[in-house]
Design brief:
Blueprint lengths: L3 H9 L8 H9 L4 E4 L8 H9 L3 E5 L3 H13 L4 E4 L5 H13 L4 E4 L7 H9 L2 E6 L21 H5 L5 E5 L4 H10 L6 E4 L7 E7 L3 H11 L4 E4 L3 H13 L4 E4 L5 H12 L5 E4 L14 E4 L6 H8 L9 E7 L3 H9 L6 H14 L10 E5 L1 H8 L3 H13 L3 E15 L3 H9 L5 H10 L8 E3 L1 H8 L3 H13 L3 E14 L6 H5 L2 H23 L5 H8 L12 H10 L1 H15 L6 H7 L4 H13 L3 E3 L5 E3 L3
Parallel strand pairs: 1-6, 1-7, 2-4, 2-5, 3-4, 5-6, 8-13, 9-11, 9-12, 10-11, 12-13
Antiparallel strand pairs: 14-17, 15-16, 15-17, 18-19
Helix pairs in contact: 2-3, 5-6, 13-22, 14-16, 18-19, 19-20, 25-27
């Protein structure tokens, strides 16, 4: 058997493992049931990929995230390693062929969702495969108290019956002690080897700042720390707005959210990865598989929905080992906002039943039918049709997705098919009087053969790229051609795909998961309380608060978080005396606003405000009519 370090060097060009990786890999190679809790950036995927490559046979990887599966398959294929993912939208015959390839085609990795394990065809073929390892990624999903619980994960133990002699490795970046116990129990581990890397990262400074003007604070931070940064925001609109604000302040920025077309996502991502843009402003859709080592700051200007998600997002900072900053900006309205965003929009069991019934009606699925049928889905149209609140409806669909009733795949694009309905000579006569669209029409004809004979699906983005125009320009021209009766056009926008995993049974379907829906709503309330406790606790080291949440004890304060720094300042009166002196010297040169004073001085804002109050009380300074501070004439 080839040594793991040789495999690491050959495929990944690394000469050494990260902490804990090697012992986990050796445990897996030795055939032990293994649990690995590694923080974000700890290199979890190598802990199953290298053992699988060291042994004969194929590794089955269970993952809940289609995008992550596709990324992993793409990365492995790029290295010359045969891998495939069984995602939604695959026909029965195609699935049959792919599974045969896993048995006879020398593949090393098969990625599939836990829902796929429910199919008899998949189970039957797995029995015939030479499986060398079963890897369960995002293993916290198996616990009902884990972040993003998915009941289908409880089916994973079926693999142990299909391949009883094969060991299992479970991996996660976020699990509290009770969740770890659940994982080990649910996967039926026998004398498991459990590896937990401390979540403590000495180079990360966790900061929480109270800011009435968050945009000004953003500008201040990013002009001081000019290295690559990520800003997490609540929604798509805000990602664009914050990015535009930063650009207006000469801070290069781009944005990322789930509504962008894949080409746009790649373009924006590459700008940031190659440092042509300093800042990536993003929703929580951003981050999966991102391993940019030199991120200096990760800033949340809206409160995260859980400590688990915050820890993962913040953990994208400082992976090169240099000091980095993980910052939450809060103000008085945030507590109400986070409750409105995450608690008031939790769908009840009755509402989930209503959405499910309407979804089946929308796609005309008969009772007892619909299993594994896939449809393009325009979410906004669906909500308008039944007068649903978009946020409540979306959360209901997510619940149905997590509970394996449906599979919801985000897929934002234009679905376009067209056919030229005039003869060649008529078309070219038409182009003689429409010179502005000549290049675009000819580019389309060259790219799609048979477009005169039958309706043909086209990619408007590819045509736009070839003709060096925007996609919207292509759409406008196609609509003009349709109006002029040159083409027949079918233009439909879709923002998702829905696959029905179970046959329609209306309320019976939802009754089976009612207790889970209620329990998940309770868990969300607990998670929001933990976030609010974290941002409001200014007496305990921020790093210790986070580590304590994940069950770590007996650690020392980090010394670099916002709490630790404020304590040091408070304990050192010379610092406050120096700050007082600096403020007076600053005002000797003229009036200044509080914002200007804070910007000029390298001191905590709270201390600066406190000193200003003291100076006002002692009549050393006064406030002018324009709300600036000036020295009093003694």
């Amino acid at each position: 058997m080839e040594h793991p370090i040789n495999i690491l060097e050959r495929y990944w060009n690394f000469t050494a493992f990260k902490p804990q990786q090697e012992v986990i890999i050796q445990s897996v190679i030795a055939g032990e049931d293994t649990f690995a809790l590694l923080p974000t950036g700890g290199g979890k995927s190598l802990c199953y990929q290298i053992p699988a490559l060291a042994k004969e046979g194929i590794c089955i990887v269970i993952s809940p995230l289609i995008a992550l599966m596709k990324d992993q398959v793409k990365a492995l294929t790029h290295k010359g390693i045969k891998a495939m993912a069984l995602t939604s939208g695959i026909s029965y015959s195609e699935l049959d062929t792919l599974l045969d390839n896993c048995i006879y085609g020398n593949y090393k990795f098969l990625y599939l969702s836990p829902e796929r394990l429910q199919q008899e065809l998949v189970q039957d073929r797995i029995k015939q495969m030479h499986v060398n390892l079963i890897a369960v990624d995002e293993a916290h999903c198996i616990s009902q108290w884990g972040n993003d619980f998915r009941p289908a994960y409880k089916n994973i133990k079926l693999l142990r019956q299909l391949q009883p002699s094969v060991n299992v490795v479970a991996l996660t970046a976020s699990a509290k002690p009770n969740v770890v116990e659940d994982i080990v129990k649910e996967l039926d581990f026998i004398q498991p080897k459990i590896f937990k890397q401390s979540f403590f990262r000495s180079n990360l400074a966790y900061m929480v700042f109270h800011e009435d003007d968050k945009y000004f604070k953003l500008e201040t931070i990013l002009k001081k720390q000019t290295a690559p940064s990520i800003i997490y925001v609540r929604n798509r609109k805000l990602s664009r707005e914050v990015s535009a604000f930063l650009e207006s302040k000469n801070i290069t920025s781009t944005y990322y959210h789930g509504g962008l077309a894949n080409e746009e996502k790649d373009k924006h991502m590459n700008h940031w990865l190659h440092n042509t843009k300093q800042v990536m402003v993003a929703t929580n859709a951003f981050g999966m598989g991102i391993d940019k080592p030199d991120v200096k700051t990760v800033i949340h200007i809206n409160l995260p929905e859980s400590i688990e998600s915050y820890f993962q997002e913040a953990g994208r900072a400082g992976r090169n080992g240099d000091k980095a900053f993980c910052i939450i900006l809060k103000n008085n309205s945030d507590e109400v906002l986070v409750k409105n965003q995450f608690l008031k929009v939790l769908p009840t069991v009755d509402f989930v039943k209503q959405v499910y019934r309407k979804l089946c009606s929308y796609f005309q699925i008969s009772y007892g039918e619909g299993e594994y049928s896939t449809f393009d889905f325009n979410f906004n149209t669906f909500c308008k049709t039944y007068n649903f609140s978009s946020i409540l409806c979306y959360n209901a669909l997510l619940l149905l997705d997590r509970n394996s009733v449906i599979s919801l795949t985000k897929s934002f694009n234009n679905k376009v098919s067209l056919q030229f309905i005039v003869p060649n000579h008529v078309l070219f006569k038409y182009l003689e009087t429409h010179h502005d669209i000549d290049v675009i029409v000819k580019a389309t004809l060259r790219m799609y053969g048979g477009i005169f004979d039958h309706p043909t699906k086209i990619n408007t983005l590819k045509i736009a790229d070839k003709a060096s125009v925007t996609e919207q320009r292509i759409i406008n021209i196609l609509q003009q051609l349709e109006k002029d009766e040159i083409i027949s056009l079918n233009l439909a926008k879709t923002d998702a795909q829905i696959t029905f995993i179970e046959p329609r049974e209306d309320d019976k379907t939802i009754n089976r998961i009612a207790a889970i829906i209620e329990q998940q709503n309770q868990l969300k309330q607990i998670q929001i309380k933990a976030v609010l406790d974290y941002i409001n606790n200014d007496s305990i080291c921020k790093s210790l608060q986070l580590l304590g949440y994940f069950g770590e004890t007996n650690l020392k304060p980090c010394g670099i978080c916002s709490v630790c720094i404020n304590k040091k300042k408070a304990e050192d009166p010379t610092d406050l005396i120096a700050l007082r002196k600096s403020i007076i010297e600053l005002l000797e040169n003229g009036e200044r606003s509080s914002r200007a004073i804070i910007t000029c001085l390298n001191a905590p804002e709270s201390h600066t405000i406190e000193i200003l109050k003291q100076l006002l009380e002692h009549n050393i300074i006064s406030i002018t009519e324009t709300n600036t501070y000036k020295l009093c004439h003694l």
